[in-house]
Amino acid sequence: MKSYNIAVIGGDGTGPEVVREAVKVLNAAAGKFGLKLSYTHYDFGGERYLRTNEVLPDSAVEELRKFPAILLGAIGHPEVKPGILEKGILLRLRFELEQYINLRPVKLYDQRFCPLKDKKPQDIDFVVVRENNEGLYTGSGGFVFKGTPNEIAVQESVNTRRGVERCLRFAFETTRKRNKAKKLTLSGKTNVLTYAFDLWERAFHEIGKKEFPEIQRDYAHVDATTMWFVKNPEWFDVIVTDNMFGDIITDLGAMIQGGMGIAAGGNINPQGASMFEPIGGSAPKYTGQGVINPLAAICAGQMMLDFLGETAAAQAIENAVIKVTREKIKSLAAGKMGYSTSQVGDMVAAELTSD
Ligand code: IPM
Ligand code: MN
Fold first, then answer.
1. pTM for the structure as a whole
2. By alpha-carbon position, which residue is closest to atom 7 of ligand 1?
3. Alpha carbon nearest to ligand 1 atom 4, residue
């Protein structure tokens, strides 16, 4: 029997509630597919920080590194200054565990949940490969004359040849594996960011031409990309982009697939501990009410199994999510699902144990 010990960080706000449902569904899938899943829980997040003044001990990073995968709920607490927990937990783990890919599928499961007129599930089915360790997120830069009328703030975008190449290769591989148009779109800003995206564009064509000749290479400026997401999302198969642009376009991607209630992502280190999360935040105003949608966290669990190589179990979870989404759920939004958080988890788990 294959067994995995998963690190679980419920985190802040509704994070623990949605992660509980993801674990429920993972256990149902494990039962069906003969896997043994065990969990080690960590209490990192705002509450712990307010209590102990500790964000993430160094020893925890080393411990987390040893797990095959990490399941994360949400990070962000209304009583903690923005940036402390996000940088101290989420970004720190992304960087130190070298999760250099942020993989965000954008897939519409039911036409009812798409805000775009006349778009159907077959029209909205693409993947964003977001670079996750560089760009504007490294913290490179600084202030000069801070607090004076002459102050200067510089925030630099870091793009290393190595970092860009490994991201591009992952994106080409993802395109190769997907059963779609075999088209990879680089989303950038070559008309203005003439250093950063010059490097990206050259590396994109060099690697594509030499190593992935069967993959069609396509380019779109990032602003135009947001336009196509709304107008012609069916044009996309796989999109690769830098950290900041990827952050922005995947929120739009989440909306066209039905909202934060369903959008999941994986912070991937192909050789190490990867971390899977619903991409919506901690939603503090819904905490403890049992109204938040757990499907995004459940889909994060599905991505985790897929990453671990348990593709049949992952596919079964996706099928169960699709069925519940199409046949049961009234809305993907918090409080409007027609069911409680745990009832939605129960329904997905029931689909996995029904036959
Ligand atoms: C995301 C989030 C994070 C990011 C924040 C919370 C630091 O928006 O995962 O997209 O900007 O990457
Ligand atoms: Mn974001």
1. 0.97
2. 86
3. 247
In sequence order, what are the beta bridge partners of 7? Answer: 40, 70
Q: d(Cα 190, Cα 128) in Å, to the nearest integer? A: 19
Per DSSP bridges, beta strands 2-11 and 216-221 are unpaired
pLDDT (tens, 9 = 90+) of the chain, 355 residues, equals: 899 999 999 999 999 999 999 999 999 999 999 999 999 999 999 999 999 999 999 999 999 999 999 999 999 999 999 999 999 999 999 999 999 999 999 999 999 999 999 999 999 999 999 999 999 999 999 999 999 999 999 999 999 999 999 999 999 999 999 999 999 999 999 999 999 999 999 999 999 999 999 999 999 999 999 999 999 999 999 999 999 999 999 999 999 999 999 999 999 999 999 999 999 899 999 999 999 999 999 999 999 999 999 999 999 999 999 999 999 999 999 999 999 999 999 999 999 997 6
Q: Determine the distance separating the centroid of ligand 2 and the alpha carbon of 41, expressed in angstroms.
A: 24
Pick from 272, 239, 254, 220: which is nearest to 100 by CA?
272
Tokens of 295: 């499907």
Residue 271: CB atoms within 10 A of its CB come to: 7
Q: Whose CA is nearest to atom 12 of ligand 1?
A: 247
44 touches 55 (CB < 8 A): yes
Residue-range domains of the chain with CATH: 1-105+260-355 (3.40.718.10), 125-256 (3.40.718.10)
- Report H helices in the chain: 15-33, 46-52, 58-64, 84-85, 92-96, 161-177, 196-211, 222-231, 243-256, 295-307, 311-327, 341-353
31: left (phi over 0), alpha (psi -120 to 50) or beta: alpha
* Interatomic CA distance for residues 77 and 45, integer angstroms: 8
